[in-house]
């Protein structure tokens, strides 16, 4: 089996968010898809260790923000490489509240969906949620972020909890953050360097061979 075949599949990049027992959570996902049109139903797959997945299990609802190409690595890093258990990911951002009272990110958003869970499927390490769309809205007409764009243009990394995670080969010289994939270009990494995306220290960087 050639794992590179999976790279030919088309994905978007989304922020999945929810709230349970007064606690908000959100994460980056590339597994959001429409499954039926009537009724309008969607699916998303999340890792069981993810705080967002656990709070969706409790609340039975989730919101989705479709990201645009303009989304910066700081926003992606905040939702993709930090945990909602110890980080208020929505603090200081332009956010809204959907039809179910859930938070969603408005910044760099092409559209958003509000979904009610109607079915779940245990996939071992992950859970597949099927959601009925109870609200949706176009927020901007800018080009949407694809997973390919995220990797090739943003030089992003796939978190190990993501369903599409695969070991990546080193391609450029410099230092790569093991948490978020940010690349520091240069032969010497300053010992006091802090990753601008996920705030990881210099010790979390690996040397990239040219």
Query: Roughly what percent helix?
Result: 10-25%
Within CATH, the superfamily of the largest domain carries the name Electron Transport, Fmn-binding Protein, Chain A
Distance between the termini: 28 Å
CATH-defined fold name of the largest domain: Pnp Oxidase, Chain A
| Rg for CA atoms | 17 Å
Counted beta strands: 12
The top-level CATH class of the largest domain is Mainly Beta
**Helix vs. strand class:** mainly beta
**Shape annotation:** globular
- Our estimate of the beta-strand percent is 35-45%
The low-confidence runs, each spanning 5 or more residues with pLDDT under 50, are 159-166
- The overall number of domains is 2
Note the run of SSEs as H and E.
EEEEHEHEEEEHEEE
Largest pleated sheet:
7 strands, antiparallel
CATH architecture of the largest domain: Roll
Helix count equals 3
What's the overall average pLDDT, rounded?
87
Provide the spatial order of strands within the biggest beta sheet: 2-1-5-8-9-4-3
In short:
Residues 172-208 form the Rubredoxin-like domain. The protein contains 3 helices and 12 strands; from the N terminus they run E-E-E-E-H-E-H-E-E-E-E-H-E-E-E.
């Amino acid at each position: 089996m050639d794992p590179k075949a999976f790279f030919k599949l088309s994905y978007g990049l989304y922020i999945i968010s929810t709230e349970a027992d007064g606690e908000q959570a959100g994460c980056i996902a590339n597994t959001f898809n429409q499954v039926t049109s009537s009724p309008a139903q969607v699916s998303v797959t999340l890792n069981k260790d993810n705080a967002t997945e656990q709070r969706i299990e409790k609340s039975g609802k989730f919101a989705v923000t479709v990201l645009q190409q303009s989304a910066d690595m700081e926003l992606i890093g905040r939702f993709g490489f930090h945990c909602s258990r110890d980080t208020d990911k929505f603090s200081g951002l332009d956010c809204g509240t959907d039809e179910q009272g859930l938070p969603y990110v408005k910044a760099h958003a092409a559209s958003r969906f509000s979904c009610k869970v109607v079915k779940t499927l245990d996939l071992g390490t992950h859970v597949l949620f099927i959601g009925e769309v109870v609200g949706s809205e176009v927020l901007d007409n800018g080009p949407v972020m694809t997973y390919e764009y995220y990797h090739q243009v943003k030089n992003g990394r796939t978190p190990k909890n993501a369903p599409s995670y695969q070991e990546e080969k080193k391609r450029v010289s410099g230092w790569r953050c093991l948490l978020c994939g940010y690349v520091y270009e240069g032969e010497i990494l300053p010992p006091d360097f802090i990753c601008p995306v996920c705030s990881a220290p210099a010790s979390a960087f690996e040397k990239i061979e040219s």
